[in-house]
Amino acid sequence: MAQPATGYPNRPIRLVIATPPGSTPDVGARLLAQYLTEDLKQPVIVENKPGVNGLIAVREVLKSPADGYTVLVAPSSTMAVTPHVYKKQAGQVLNDFSAVSQIYQTDMSLIVRSGEGLESVGALLDAARKSPGKLTAAYAAVGSASHVAIELFKQQAGVDIYTVPFNTSPAAALAVASGNADLLFETVASTEPVVSSGRAKRIAMTGASRFKLVPTLPTVAESGVPRFVITTWAGAFVPRGVAPDRIATLSSAIGKVLANRDMARKLHTAGLLPGDASAPSFEAFWRAEAALWEKTVAQSKALQQE
């Protein structure tokens, strides 16, 4: 049953993050928690519950009262892709949550091993076509953004690339840096440690146009795979039944944080752009994204799970 909004919040708020520490959603959520604590005058506690591409966190939050004190922070892969990858879970994600705010949005980057001659998307495509199945792509988990990205890339480019799952995005990036994989689609935040160390190289971004935080990098679309476009995001969600006034309070507070110049600067440093904090507009955006990915997953057997 929905709880009245009067006096909300008057005790700590729990942010349950659907990804592990150090992941891109975790970075965004922890920055958000710092500023929300100041704005709401209540502690905002961060708790990571990774696993099954976010479904462990989904179940954890749905066990909590619908009172606005337990908030799910999850990426687009969990909220828009996973419901169609794990079809039995679709209702749990799409029917049992309300959107609060988009926290950030970003394009993914394509990284490759340094010194392997894969200096451009064109060179990568040439290598893949010359030796089908020889190149190896890492990805974070079944149904993750990195998994969706490589499967779409293979489909649209018409190439055969062997794929290997890893437990987390940082682990997948490390696999490329250490020579256990040749390429990876992941966010700037997750790949920055291996790129800045020189062990991997970022060769393209996945947006429809050049990403404004790294404008010198071409897009995959302009580099030989013209229909390939992927952007990712993370948002805050609450179980259905939370009072509309409480959702509005949370959304307004997050919007205030995202408008803070210092917060925006820190997000930019992590390769992220502040999201749209309006609950109604984010709800509509999320539903549209889920409908789009339903069609995409249906076309890929590699993405379909029980």
From TrEMBL:
Kindly list any coiled-coil regions of this protein.
none
Q: Which Pfam families match?
A: TctC (PF03401)
Record-linked InterPro entries: BUG, Bug_dom1
Provide this UniProt record's keywords sorted from A to Z: Receptor
Q: Record's family?
A: Belongs to the UPF0065 (bug) family.
| PANTHER family on file | BLR1237 PROTEIN, TRICARBOXYLATE-BINDING PROTEIN
State the name under which the record lists this protein.
Answer: Tripartite-type tricarboxylate transporter receptor subunit TctC
